[in-house]
Specification:
By secondary structure, the protein is α/β, with parallel strands linked by helices. The chain is built from 11 helices and 10 strands. The chain has helices spanning 13-27, 36-49, 55-63, 68-78, 89-109, 126-139, 156-164, 177-183, 199-202, 237-250, 267-270; strands at 114-119, 146-153, 166-167, 184-189, 192-197, 205-209, 223-228, 251-259, 273-275, 280-283. The chain starts with 12 loop residues before the first helix and ends with a strand. Bound molecules: S-adenosylmethionine. The site of S-adenosylmethionine has 24 residues, from loops.
Length: 284
């Protein structure tokens, strides 16, 4: 492990396979044959910071009992967090103007004033906060609903960012200025300005770390809405298939599942759901 500054680092197929296996076991993220360069570009900076000369040394370090922090750091690095406020606008329009109204009408007819929503790969918070804003825009601040909005992600780093609720002006540029004025405060720190999501929205969302592949997905209540968008890409087919079933099981009858724009349910699982277009499904 002595550093002789042996850069650029080499990354053998054997080392790639061993790391891919470890990442798969710990996160469910699948690194197939074509993603070796991508993995190297993500992990090289970590090896440099640790002053390591080879991926073999890195693997040995990760195998130590005391390496939980390093494993968490590696998983943070390989789980791409790209996201946007109100990403896939047509889905948000459908959520607010169609699905939400229908669920509300159905619940009222059963004297039930509770909404349960799960945003499963919530990344740095833009998606769950967009959901919370849509809910408030539809229901108003002083509504009689009990709203449970759970936001989960694998990456502890993304969850910390999400919890802070602070965003650069670049990150909010696609939001309607009326919404920005209503739900964000402009703040200044050391000559930098940023936008902070208002407490009244923040308090709707509870953030939690959860691994969609390796954690048990047991919840007390069924969800009316599940957002599981742009995360299937990380998983091998068998993991995705098993996850789909768990999501369907976690959804209430008549509840809605939102997938990423280019994602769909596998044919075997489609029979439990009605496809409404735009990668939105309703549980039969
Ligand atoms: C590309 S982002 C998508 C964010 C958001 N859902 C959206 O559509 O804008 C993918 C997110 O999935 C998370 N992720 C990857 N593997 C995961 C797993 N096994 N369990 C939970 N989250 C995972 C990553 O940490 C990342 O935040």
């Amino acid at each position: 492990m002595n550093n002789t500054n042996n850069y650029p680092l080499t990354f053998s197929d054997k080392e790639y396979k061993a790391l891919a296996e470890l990442i798969f076991i710990r996160s469910g993220i699948h690194f197939g044959d074509s993603r070796k360069d991508l993995l190297k570009s993500r992990l090289d900076p970590i090896l440099r910071r640790l002053n390591l000369n080879s991926y073999d040394d890195y693997l040995n370090l990760l195998k130590l009992n005391t390496s939980e922090y390093l494993i968490g750091e590696m998983i943070n690095e390989v789980s791409t967090s790209h996201t946007l406020f109100f990403r896939h606008k047509k889905q948000f329009d459908f959520f607010r103007k169609d699905a939400l109204k229908k669920i509300i009408a159905s619940k009222i007819s059963f004297n039930n004033q509770e909404l349960n929503i799960w945003c499963t790969a919530s990344s740095t918070g833009e998606e769950p906060y967009s959901i919370a804003i849509s809910l408030i825009e539809e229901l108003g601040f002083n509504n009689n609903w009990s709203i449970n909005l759970l936001a989960t992600d694998l990456s502890t780093k993304s969850i910390e960012t999400a919890k802070s609720g602070n965003y650069h002006s670049e990150q909010i540029k696609n939001i309607d200025p009326i919404i920005i004025n209503k739900y964000f405060d402009k703040k200044y720190e050391l000559n930098n300005s940023f936008y902070s999501i208002k407490e009244i929205i923040k308090c709707f969302v509870s953030f939690k770390r959860l691994n969609l592949i390796t954690d048990k997905l047991d919840f007390e209540k069924k969800f009316d809405f599940i957002f599981c968008r742009n995360v299937f890409i990380y998983f091998a087919y068998s993991e995705q298939h098993a996850l789909e079933l768990k999501l369907i099981n976690a959804l209430d009858k008549g509840g809605y599942l939102f997938l990423g724009g280019s994602e769909s349910l596998s044919i075997e699982n489609s029979c439990f759901m009605k496809h409404l277009g735009q990668s939105i499904y309703q549980k039969l």
